[in-house]
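Appendix B, example 12.
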Amino acid sequence: MRIVIEELKRAIDEVGTKRTIRFILYCVVQVIYHNLVDHLLYFSSARKLFLQILGAKIGKYSILMDVNFFNWHHTGPSGLKIGKECFIGDKTLIDLYQSVILEDQVTVAQRVTILTHLNVGYKNHPMQKFFPKTSRPVTLKKGSVVGAAATILPGITIGQKAFIAAGSVVTKNVPANTLVAGIPAKKIRKIK
């Protein structure tokens, strides 16, 4: 028990009391979302309504399947902006450390991961000097498509009508009307 209390104190010292309280509150919100909204009220409209009440902007005719969110305590659901006629597939994982913006008619397939931050650990972690904490928003422009199990890294913009092949890891911005694939994702061809 003593070790748990010491670890908790260290975490509070690192982030502060206010952020710790915000974290705890959003943990409760996350439990409600995943257990009540996601399992008992399985319909996409219930998910949308719950997120909208918390501040997310979600356009008409957009469908959110079994989407998982984490880092709610940073930007919160207000950092989530989804345009009209978007689709987000089952088991997609969205990091709300920074904002995530999907413009109109964006399709995100199943098991996609959208990351908005990198953090290797506590401030004194030996890898901090090589990989300092960073966070940047992610934007998917109108009509873009992200294939199943792709990963989008922090700060990426996916151009209008771009297509990310399944399983790709996107480490650089993707121009409009472009198909990319691979790890890391590379241009395959222009889409006309």
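Residues 17-40 form the longest helix (24 residues). The two ends are 62 Å apart (CA to CA).
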